[in-house]
Amino acid sequence: MKISTGRPGATNEILDVCGTGGDRLNTFNISTTVAGSSTGYLAVRGFTQQFYAAQAQAATAAARISLARDGVIKAQDNLAASIARFRAGEAQIIEVTDAQATLVAQRTALYQAIFDYQIALGRLRQATGQ
To answer: Which strands sit side by side in the sheet containing 28-29, from one edge to the other?
Structure first.
């Protein structure tokens, strides 16, 4: 079994996980390196899974940060409008408190996304040995 570079359209393999190396493709033959030990293969597979999972978590958290920032801005605008409507006598106080609760929820979502991003970066650094 060979593992390619993963680039779309790429046909070059970089890692030969089982084989003798006799195919002369200049791939890194990991099965020879670990001398038939399934522990070595599992370690490489575990590292790969850990790396890609951490990378995906970081990307997802970064996207959530962007969305949460937009949500906070919209909630602040909504709160300002609600306060103005209340002061003008066009809205009840419940509208203002609802807008405040929405702003708190959006800020909490932003802080959670930032926290998740930092955790994902830590896992990514751990997976890469930093």
So the answer is: 2-4, 13-16, 28-29
CA 64 to chain centre: 9
Alpha-carbon separation of residue 33 from 12, 28, 36, 104 (angstroms) = 20, 9, 8, 55
Stated pTM of the model? 0.61
Q: Which residues pair with 13 in a beta bridge?
A: 4
Q: Is 3 helix (H, G, I), strand (E, B) or coil?
A: strand
Query: pLDDT tens for residues 4-40?
Result: 444 455 454 444 455 555 666 655 555 555 555 566 6
**What are the backbone dihedrals phi and psi of residue 34, each rounded to the nearest 5 degrees, phi first?**
-90, 5
Residues 6+ positions from 85 with CB-CB distance below 8 Å: 91, 95
DSSP helix/strand/coil, 20: coil
Rounded Cα gap, residues 27 and 16, in angstroms: 6
Q: Determine contact, residues 103/72, Cβ cutoff 8 Å.
A: yes
